[in-house]
């Protein structure tokens, strides 16, 4: 499955990754304002942090 993900989602270019990180910051503020706690992070295809790896 990881090999398929790498073909479907090539490596993110830095500008796109930066935009996604900025969007995540906005979402995180909204989530925290509603009192929701817990981990909130950006995980991209091929990221070893996904699925507890």
- Class of secondary structure makeup: mainly alpha
Order of helices and strands: HH
Largest β sheet strand count, sense and barrel closure? none
Question: How many angstroms separate the termini?
Answer: 14 Å
Low-confidence stretches: none
* Percentage of residues in strands: under 5%
Number of strands: 0
Give the overall shape: flat
Mean pLDDT: 76
Q: What is the count of DSSP helices, taking H or I runs of 4+ residues?
A: 2
**Fraction of residues in H or I helices:** 40-55%
- Report the C-alpha radius of gyration, rounded: 13 Å
- By oligomeric state, this entry counts as single chain
Please, could you describe this protein's structure?
The protein is mainly alpha-helical and 53 residues long. 51% of the residues lie in helices and 0% in strands. The protein has helices at residues 2-8, 14-33. The two termini are 14 Å apart.
Helices and strands, with pairings:
Elements: H1 2-8, H2 14-33
